[in-house]
Specification:
- The complex is a heterodimer.
- Chain A is mainly α.
- In chain A, 70% of the residues lie in helices and 1% in strands.
- Chain A contains 13 helices and 2 strands, in the order H-E-E-H-H-H-H-H-H-H-H-H-H-H-H.
- In chain A, strands 1-2 form a two-stranded antiparallel sheet.
- In chain A, strand 1 (35-36) and strand 2 form a beta hairpin.
- Chain A is globular and about 70 Å long.
- Chain B is an alpha+beta fold.
- In chain B, helix 10 crosses helix 11 (251-260), helix 14 runs parallel beside helix 16 and helix 18 (402-417) runs antiparallel to helix 19.
- Classes of the chains: A mainly alpha, B alpha+beta.
């Protein structure tokens, strides 16, 4: 028992912070979601009004939900494909591989705000790097962030910039695959594609599953890039759910409504994560 | 090391950490405390660079004039100003005076975050405020019959134009169009395309319904009925005008041209680099032109009215001074607001408006020697001063959902300007959105 207390004493700074700044707000937000609250005056109980309005009256709730789901549907699978592909390439035995790995990992440690500002210039339709490059081949590039059709896709493309973070985890997963499996497959006559399809991917599936869950949770909290680059525009095409929560809470001073939105988001993330855990039995293979 | 010894080592360490943290906070508080034995008045603002220096001068002058109060200014970043302010109010430690740049006065007043200011005025001051100041000053900052935000500076918008480009296009550089239709036609002659057909210069490119609605007799607030006005014929005409110009040049061309503009500020302002021959902008650009393009020849004129529209009309933007509800020294805060705004002595405060390059708040301030000297030195300001005295200025709707309304108006204007909706559709949709928001607020128990 005494040993436990020592442990608690060591983690007490974190524990106190967690209780005060995570657990308490988390629980308080359940109550606040049933109130009208502006953070300055005491909350006023409004029952289910916030939830009722959200589902029946607020077009921006549905719009932000749809923007976030579409973004998730595009960026998470693309991120996985890009991350795994990159990891496979960086798993080869080539001279200077450590340098290549560092280069691909670097973007994921850069500050998001700084990256967003740089990408605003890269996506500029007239003087941006991408359209200047396309122009060399006679292609007139799209308006990227200034077009409601292209703005979400621009952010999807930008999300690949930070794929180095998951790539490192895939790389660790690849290193963990026993060499004897490849030897056995090769002896059985499997070609490179067959080895990838029937050895690498199944053995990597726990890592893919982990990155998919983490990626989905991150996507549903997508905020900074949209806040810096588009502020929800043009025409609400990048009005992400987290951005809408922020505006409702701090711009329109409707903390109760924002808390209700936060809880709906939490339940959605829980539901999707639960579904993914349910499906993993069919496609995730754990060694042994 | 056994466990009990570990605990006895850890406890003093934790106590020490907490003590050091507490001392840090105490030291910080002491560092911020006033040097003199006067009542501190904490003032938060967002003025930086040259405006920050001017702001400090106002504070220094106030402090020099005082034996009772001492204003202690703190510059906070604009992007975080609202969140910092609201959390300080929630935590019971708000500043005594706070600058506000957003249209949040009505919303915050409804929530009980701000104190009324008109109740602090003497009858004479109230009389002067209501009848002796310009409409932009006394028409804004109200909620339910009380003034919660004292307007310090009003931005109004006029046309900056370049006579050299008029001359090069075969137009009379000494004649600025007298109607909006004439201006639009002249602007077409001023526009230039390159060999590939892309716009390299646009004569005049209207954008944003809020700046144009007043000229068409529209706007978003009707003071006579105290109602928000959205889908009105005048607002439809204003938005249709903007969309019509976009259509003439081609929406895609306009978008690409706008993308090619480097910056809206400093030396890259499109008017300075010649990308626009005429542009509708605020009075603060004069300072930037003096700073970044001292040799550029330009003129300023009010936006000419459309057929059947209003002359000397403009949209407006304001900055306010407010006193939060939990302010510890509201009397000191009010003394500072009075000093700076010149409520009792307009002529005394004229130098501050001149230093800030702001418009005068009243005819009395305009006529003061300090402001007249400023006008003599900066003759282009006269157009803006005339606009400040106009009755045809846009008013920010004093409704508690002001910021939401503003955001949705911008979105509706954007939808029409991009061609996604017709002006009628965009304003109908806006009206629907606002009706839904009002109904939502009603269900939450708000009276509006």
């Amino acid at each position: 028992m005494k040993k436990n207390w020592v442990g608690f004493a060591f983690i007490s700074p974190w524990l106190l912070g967690f209780l005060a700044f995570t657990l308490y707000p988390f629980i308080a937000s359940v109550y606040l979601s049933f109130t009208r609250y502006n953070i300055v005056t005491p909350p006023v109980w409004v029952g289910l009004a916030n939830y009722h309005q959200m589902f029946t009256q607020d077009p921006l709730f549905w719009k932000s939900l749809s923007v976030t789901f579409n973004f998730a549907a595009a960026s998470v699978p693309l991120g996985i494909v890009a991350g795994v592909s990159l990891a496979l390439l960086l798993n080869l035995n080539i001279k200077g591989m450590s340098l290549y790995r560092t280069i691909f990992f670097l973007p994921s440690i850069l500050p998001t705000v700084a990256t967003s500002v740089v990408f605003m210039w890269i996506f500029n339709p007239e003087i941006g790097l991408i359209n200047k490059f396309l122009k060399l081949f006679g292609i007139v590039g799209p308006a990227w962030l200034q077009s409601p059709q292209w703005a979400p896709w621009s952010l999807v493309l930008m999300s690949l910039w930070a794929v180095g973070g998951s790539m490192v985890i895939y790389l660790a997963g690849l290193k963990d695959i026993p060499a004897y499996l490849y030897e056995a497959a090769t002896i059985d006559g499997a070609n490179a594609w067959q080895r990838l399809r029937h050895v690498t991917l199944p053995m990597l599936s726990p890592v893919i599953f982990f990155n998919m869950v983490m990626g989905l949770i991150a996507v549903f909290q997508y905020f900074t890039q949209a806040y810096v680059m588009t502020q929800g525009g043009p025409e609400d095409s990048t009005r992400f759910y987290a951005l809408e929560i922020f505006d409702r809470a701090w711009r329109y001073l409707d903390m109760g409504y924002a808390s209700a939105m936060g809880w709906v988001l939490f339940l959605i993330v829980m539901l999707i994560t639960g579904l993914m855990f349910w499906t993993q039995r069919r496609w995730v293979h754990y060694e042994g | 090391m056994n466990t009990s010894r570990t605990i006895w080592v850890l406890i003093p360490v934790l106590v020490l950490v907490l003590l050091v943290g507490y001392m840090g906070v105490r030291n910080h508080e002491q560092a911020a405390a006033p040097v003199h034995k006067r009542i501190p008045v904490y003032y938060w603002h967002m003025w930086t660079s040259e405006w920050g220096l001017t702001m400090n001068k106002v504070v220094d002058d106030f402090n020099a004039s005082q034996t009772k109060y001492e204003v202690i200014p703190l510059q906070i970043p604009y992007g975080e100003s609202d969140t910092k302010f609201l959390t300080s109010v929630a935590g019971g430690e708000p500043p005594d005076v706070m600058t506000q740049w957003d249209d949040a006065i009505s919303g915050w007043s409804q929530e009980g975050i701000l104190q009324p200011l008109d109740t602090r005025m003497t009858p004479q001051e109230l009389e002067f405020f209501k009848n002796g100041t310009y409409s932009g000053i006394h028409n804004n900052g109200w909620y339910k019959g009380h003034l919660y935000g004292m307007v310090m500076g009003v931005d109004v918008y006029a046309c900056y134009y370049r006579p050299d480009q008029f001359k090069a296009a075969g137009l009379d550089p000494n004649h600025f169009p007298t109607t909006l239709e004439e201006l639009t036609e002249d602007a077409k002659k001023l526009s230039v395309k390159d060999s590939s057909g892309e716009l390299t210069r646009v004569g005049f490119l209207p954008t944003g319904i809020t700046n144009f609605a007043p000229s068409f007799g529209g706007g978003f607030w009707d003071p006579a009925t105290s109602q928000v006005t959205l889908n009105t014929p005048a607002n439809v005409r204003a938005l249709s005008y903007i969309v019509g110009v976009d259509n003439y040049y081609g929406m895609n061309n306009v978008m690409r041209f706008n993308s090619s503009l480097k910056s809206q500020n400093g030396v890259s302002w499109p008017f300075i680099d010649g990308s626009f021959s005429i542009t509708l902008d605020g009075e603060w650009r004069i300072k930037q032109l003096e700073q970044y393009a001292p040799n550029l020849k330009y003129e300023v004129a009010p936006l000419p009215p459309p057929a059947g529209g209003k002359a000397m009309a403009s949209g407006t933007a304001m900055n306010y001074l407010t006193i939060p509800s939990g302010a510890r020294h509201p009397d000191g805060a009010w003394a500072f607001i009075k000093f700076w705004s010149g409520l009792d002595h307009p002529a005394n405060s004229a130098k501050y408006n001149a230093d800030f390059y702001w418009l005068p708040s009243s005819p009395a301030m305009e006529q003061s020697p300090d402001y007249q000297a400023f006008l003599k030195q900066h003759p282009h300001y006269k157009t803006f001063v005339e606009l400040a005295a106009s009755k045809n200025l846009g008013v920010s709707p004093p409704v508690p959902y002001q910021l939401y309304l503003k955001d949705r108006i911008l979105n509706a204007s954007d939808l029409a300007e991009r061609g996604t909706m017709t002006p009628e559709q965009a304003l109908t949709s806006l009206e629907h959105e606002i009706a839904v928001e009002k109904s939502r607020r009603k269900e939450l128990g708000y009276d509006q």
